[in-house]
Amino acid sequence: MTDNEPDPARSTQQFRAFQQQQSQPEQVPSGGFPTGLVIGVAAVAVLVIIAVAAFMV
Length: 57
Hints:
Layout: H1 8-23, H2 35-56
């Protein structure tokens, strides 16, 4: 015998878990330098130096 009716308790538990997950603020790293930005700027600087050196030769 198959049970086609959804379990209301299960739906309520899923909704409460979803609601609790949504109400928690995301943890954002605080302080310090953004590492990705520093690496990106350094990579661009190296590329510019290489391009300038290539035109000088």
